[in-house]
Amino acid sequence: MLYFLYKMSSSDLTSHNSEEDLSDYDEALDEVNKRIYEAFDILKRETRKARKEKRSLDKVAKKLEHVHFSTMVQLNVGGHLFSTSVATLSRDPGSMLHAMFSGRFDTKPSEDGSYFIDRDGTHFRYILNYLRSGQLVLPEDKIVRKELLNEAEFYQVQGIIDELKGKPFKDTLILSSDQRQTLINWLKDTMTNASNDYVLLYRASRNGWNASNFHACCDNKGPTVTVVKNGNFIFGGYTDQQWESHASGVYREASASFLFSLVNHSGLPPTKMALKDGREGYAIYCHGGHGPTFGGGADLRFPHAPNSNTCYVNLNNTYECPVGQNATTFFTGAQTFTIQEMEVFGFEKCICKHKGVEKMWRKMSSPKGPEEASDLPCDGAFEEVNKYIKGVYDILKQEANKVHKEREAFEEVAKKLEHVHFSKMLKLNVGGHLFSTSLSTMNKDPGSMLHAMFSGRFDTKPDEDGTYFIDRDGTHFRYILNYLRTGELVVPDDKTIRHELLIEAKFYQVEGIIKVLTPKLFQDSVILSFDQRQTLSNWCKDATDITNARDKLLYRASRDGWAASNFHSFCDNKGPTVTVIKSGNYTFGGYSEEQWDGSSGYKRAQNSFLFSLVNPSGLSPTKMSLRAGQEGHSIWCNGAFGPVFGGGGGCDLVISNGSNSKNNAVNLNNAYQCPSGQNENTFLTGNQNFLVTELEMSSFRKSQYLEDSLSDGSFEELYKHIDDVYDILKRETNKLRKEKEAFDEVAKKLDHVYFSKMLKLNVGGHMFTTSLETMTKDPGNATLIKMPSPRELEEVSELPSDEAFEEVNKYIIGVYDILKQEANKVYKEREAFDDVANKLEHVHFSKMLKLNVGGHLYSTSLSTMNKDPGSMLHAMFSGRFDTKPDEDGSYFIDRDGTHFRYILNYLRTGELIVPNDEIIRRELLAEVKFYQVEGMINELEPTPSADPIQTVIQPFKDSLILSSNQRQTLMNWLKNTPGVSKSDELLLYRASRDGWYSYNFHSCCDNKGPTVTVIESGDNIFGGFTEQSWESSGSYKSAENSFLFSLVNPSGLSPTKMPLKSGQEGYAMYCHTGYGPTFGGENYHDLCIFNTPNCNNNFAYLNNAYQCPSGQNAETFLTRSETFRLSEMEVYRL
């Protein structure tokens, strides 16, 4: 405005004085102009400041909506305390939190003013933050996200559920959103939970077009969806079976498989093509040299490198072709074609589904209560209204639907609000970790110590602060609480965490967690997959009673030796056993309840069986029982052979001496039944004679449970006494029976004898008078003893017969059995109470100690501190020193408390569980030396002669080939090698576990940095190191620090390191997809490992790139011959 006035003034003045001398005015006008500009600038600047301030105030005003001084709500979520506002909790009208504070439910705070919710509060802050800001920010951690989804489903916060639930096919570059939804609709029966997902396993343009690339990414990954793009056409297939690699190819049965077309040559809408009846066994074809192939015929086949080689379609062999469509051209307009892209998605199942949540809530906007829902208008009334006022109808129906939804929501909330325990909250202090829960949660497992603790049978009282103190490590206690709350165990797949949690679950006797975490049968197997272990366990349980049994790995050929003598030294006289054999890709074996020995003869074992888990025919896991009458030939024991099953006309399965290099044989149908339609010689491995690549033998042993409150000896004594009573009764009754017979005789003779108090006798006409006393002077005179009355005689006549005695005997035995059964119950109950009583020693209500270790707070007990009499902790509380607590009641120790929980746990349990991490172990060792806990020092401190780093990390600890001395030799060679870090070696690949094909090696080892290859061939052990990554490039790589080595050789030379020859660094290693690890080159490879090296001849030809030891033959130094086969191979990343 001032600027406008200035312009006007300036113009007027100029017009009036146009002919005058304006020189006097120019300076004045310039000054005025300058001042006006300055005023304008000041106003403009101040206006901007005001605007900014207004914007800031507006922003603050919005943010201050979150600052509710009079409506603050305090929440106690499983012991985690949160402060928020009613407005925040009401942000999602469809959530349980909104309903909880809507006024429709009688929710009252606890005594401390907080509202208690019996749920895990670890991730509740993410829920609150989402309600506050509308944004979900959380770590990229699968466990955190799954746990949070579980909580969001409980609280029914739909926005979080939508963000966290599975988004199938989200990473696709082929599918549109509509096409994704079509696939999801077809697959909805496979996705039973919000977080179920189909995730990208393989993209040809990213992972490589070779069949080996497909199999490396997709084999053994469960159900998959294959999506293919050819020009504008999009099609593919789903299978519920997993893909596998087989050299000769096998069909797999997959009854839920189907093909589909989303965009096709005919312009047909998206089409699903199901399996034809009876063709389920040909659903997919698994071959190591092919990509995904569907149907026998094949209906849809993708060869090696389908971007350049011809793909093929021929529907109606196994999958139905749409009616009216051409079986060969429906997909792309041609029978043969190449493709521009392929994607394979694998099914990922959620492990933390919340049982109580079966449907998601919609947002509730109606203010009406649930009680009004019963008065909703019926559809007929709506139709009537619709005739007159369509708009009213729409409004009414919309509002009625809202009320319906609100009623459903309230019913759901009512169930969930059972977790909101306002008056029954319990506060627990578990080793310094504070938790809040409810009595009902503690009582979920009636057999647990937690239930017993609050059952009223024990005098459990809270501490002064109202908490119940348990002297245990509380680090993982939240998993126990969550299990009791939901019935599901969600825990990271971390061995240390699971081990620690199992120890705690055993202490608290939470049987459900113990069952989940306790190692199952065949856990030590390097051959069996999880599913195969379960299958074999079920078969063994059917064959014999192994309930509560544990298995023990007796023998592994690659570890303990391949000779028959090794097998017998480990396995003879060890009771029921299971033999598991791997030959290439095939897995089979046998069970026998009879024990092995070296006796050279057959043994009878009627429950024995053979089995096949993976076979060339693609038959599902198969159990082969003994044939009728062949029980006496179940196994054959001979010290010169390994395990041999069957006999009669010939042995069904023979494992020879040195089974990795000599021929073993199979010839089913002698003693064991061959599956119908299968060849008895080739069913197991494809050949009658075969090599074993791994063999394991496990035995079963019963868990020991005390069953009786009285010992067996006591019961035998009791039974003996019962027998004695029975004998006495029988003897006395026999005496009574004889007496009765005598009475009967006398009764006949005494028909004429009449008694009174005085006895008068007429003896043949001679009269005598006497007394009863006189007549009974001689007890042996049967005629003169006191005669029974007729009533007494009548009772005697009812004496028990022999049958009655047998009946009595049955009852006595029955009573004995009942007594024994009841005694067992009493003993078990007493044992359980003793166990609980022992464990409740850890619940120290008055002897709790609070420790502040460098700012880390711990709670424990005096008895725990005194467990190690020689430690500083024992001395500290022995009374010999003047140790006093701080003002807050805690004892302060000026040390790092980061790892102090491991020390407390060791003192509590006597067991040291600590991660295999060099830094943690070094830091912990320093602390235990300070506290002088001798047992921990002994476990953690390296031996004086060893390098501390190597002792702690246990080099090559997972090796089945190397001895401890050989491991140390390798580490000594490697420790000064440039580029090699002193950290734990990681086993990337084991041939007997991961497969013998070269693509198995490359899929596990390519692009992994420096590696060590360790090879076993018979008794010889050798290999090589390279600091460069393996690849599938088909070229040599330079690696100047590479070397070959021999640890055991035919010449008996001590362990030998063979470095590169000068100038040969460029030929250090040869990378090719068709080869395994291959070292050296130019003229010949120094060490060449071929595809399937357990069957094919590999070779060594030293002195090309690597130095051969002086005086040794370059071809035979490693194995005695130029060509050789492998019995095992391992590759480690450094």
Automatic annotation (TrEMBL):
SMART domains: BTB, TLDc. Residues 71-140 form the BTB domain. Residues 15-63 form a coiled coil. InterPro entries: BACURD1-3 (IPR045068), BTB/POZ_dom (IPR000210), SKP1/BTB/POZ_sf (IPR011333), T1-type_BTB (IPR003131), TLDc_dom (IPR006571). Keywords: Coiled coil. It comes from the Eukaryota. GO terms for biological process: protein homooligomerization. Pfam families: BTB_2 (PF02214), TLD (PF07534). PROSITE patterns: BTB, TLDC. The keyword Secreted does not apply. Residues 173-348, 526-701, 960-1134 form the TLDc domain. PANTHER family: BTB/POZ DOMAIN-CONTAINING ADAPTER FOR CUL3-MEDIATED RHOA DEGRADATION PROTEIN FAMILY MEMBER, RE57120P. This is TLDc domain-containing protein. It comes from Pocillopora damicornis.
